[in-house]
Design a protein that fits this description.
single chain; about 450 residues; alpha+beta; five-stranded antiparallel beta sheet; five-stranded mixed beta sheet; elongated
Length: about 450
């Protein structure tokens, strides 16, 4: 607080006291406790000037380029700032020069942005309010002080500097203006080289693609040349009925568990039923059905000249025949299916699987499944998926893991946990073993 202002402020305080009958509020001045820049942080030197000569102040505390960080109290009361030069220039920097607080900060710390025209030297930092000011002595450097030069000759012009460099330019000169990271131009590919590389890469990719096509063709040929794996199940054409139960195909059994009631029916149907196949004939037979859905043994659906349909295009030569299995399951049993206990002795490993394939048409119900054991859920197809296939006949084709086994049930039916009624047609079920470790009858 300056001495000249004390009397005026004193009389103002006394007058305010007698006029109001109470003391006026006391405004607290800002207080500076620390100033820091880009260099070593140090405390404020009170009531004394910092040396003007940089050589006498080698540990200068405020090495800055753009801002000062001011710590103290009541900094939010500051109305304007000044930097008053002390090095003979007597330059005062204010807000019009760009000296201002950065937005934000607190009453305890603020960032003071410096003018772009700031120069090195000693300054008095003043934080001003309408009722006084707080000051601190700071020394501003824009970088470490360098060594003193030998002379004060003016800097050479661009042309003079170029002439000096030209005298030492060349091989082994240490200059590498013609290199990139020390590498000569010949190290880098030209546009022509890039084009050649692209052509070579394209040729190699084409070669790889051709090799993959060849491998795929060889794999297909190998599958054709391998002997067909025999069907583990017996009587999968459903031509023989059981002597014990004429309604059940020979070799097949019913299974159910859980729940209070269950009804399982398994009857055979003509392959013409529901349009699984059509007659193999040159002309449309008399009495043919108008749609696959309405087709039956006596009224088949004709798919066209010498065409039995999308599932078996040619059929009937040599006395080949088969039936469909018409399976109906109702009741609340947890597990329901038809199955066979196959007689194979089988030892498998992690690569061994059972593989199932059959055409399925779901007439009623949610889903149809296949498994080893009672679950019928290792492979599942839904009615929605079947309905999307031609004439509602979908090919369920997939593999599933099983146990090392002999004489254990493998069958198909309603997936475990499903209790809605199931009515389904099954055609030509085929079960074999993929990659068995050992198998025998």
């Amino acid at each position: 607080m300056s001495v000249e202002k004390i009397p005026l402020m004193f009389y103002g305080l006394v007058l305010a006291y007698f006029m109001t009958g109470c003391p006026p509020p006391v405004e607290e001045l800002p207080e500076i406790t620390q100033v820091d820049g880009d260099g070593i942080q140090a405390g404020i030197v009170s009531n004394q000037d910092l040396p003007i000569n940089p050589e006498d102040r080698k540990d200068a505390t405020h090495r800055i380029r753009t801002a000062l960080i001011i710590s103290g109290k009541n900094l939010d009361k500051v109305e304007k700032c000044e930097l008053r030069g002390k090095d003979g220039a007597n330059r005062v920097f204010t807000e019009k020069d760009g000296l201002m607080f950065e937005q934000g900060g607190t009453a305890l710390e603020k960032k003071l942005l410096l003018p772009k025209t700031i120069f090195a030297g000693a300054f008095t930092l003043a934080l001003l309010t309408s009722f006084g000011e707080a000051t601190a002595q700071v020394y501003v450097l824009q970088g470490e002080k360098g060594e003193k030069g030998d002379s004060a000759e003016p800097s050479p012009s661009d042309q003079e500097l170029l002439a000096k460099i030209s005298n030492v330019d060349g091989a082994d000169s240490g200059l590498d203006a013609d290199t990139l990271d020390g590498l000569e131009a010949v190290t880098f590919a030209s546009a022509a080289d890039t084009s050649d590389m692209e052509a070579e890469l394209t040729a190699r990719l084409d070669s790889i693609e051709a090799s993959l096509d060849t491998l795929q063709s060889m794999t297909s040929d190998l599958k054709v040349s391998l002997p067909t794996t025999g069907n583990i199940w017996q009587n999968t054409r459903f031509l023989r009925t059981s002597s014990a139960d004429p309604a059940l195909p020979e070799g097949w059994s019913f299974y159910s568990s859980g729940g209070s009631s269950v009804t399982i029916e398994a009857v055979t149907e003509s392959p013409f039923y529901k349009g699984f196949i059509g007659p193999y004939s040159e002309t449309k037979p008399p009495g043919s059905s108008s749609s696959p859905e309405a087709a039956s043994a006596t009224s088949p659906y004709w798919y066209g000249v010498w065409n039995c349909g999308p599932r078996i295009s040619r059929w009937g030569w040599g006395g080949m025949s088969f039936n469909l299995l018409h399976l109906t399951i109702s009741g609340d049993a947890t597990y329901t299916l038809v199955y066979q206990d196959h007689s194979d002795l089988l030892v498998g490993n992690h690569a061994g699987r059972y593989h199932f394939r059959a055409y399925v048409k779901i007439l009623r119900g949610e889903a149809f499944g296949v498994s080893q054991g009672a679950g019928a859920s290792s492979l599942i197809v839904t009615k929605q998926e079947c309905d999307a296939a031609p004439e509602g006949w979908c090919l369920l084709d997939g593999s599933f893991h099983g146990s090392n086994t002999a004489a254990v049930m493998i069958g198909f039916g309603r997936p475990g946990g499903v209790v809605t009624d199931l009515e389904v047609l099954v055609a030509l079920p085929y079960l074999y073993v993929e990659n068995p470790l050992w198998r025998d009858k």
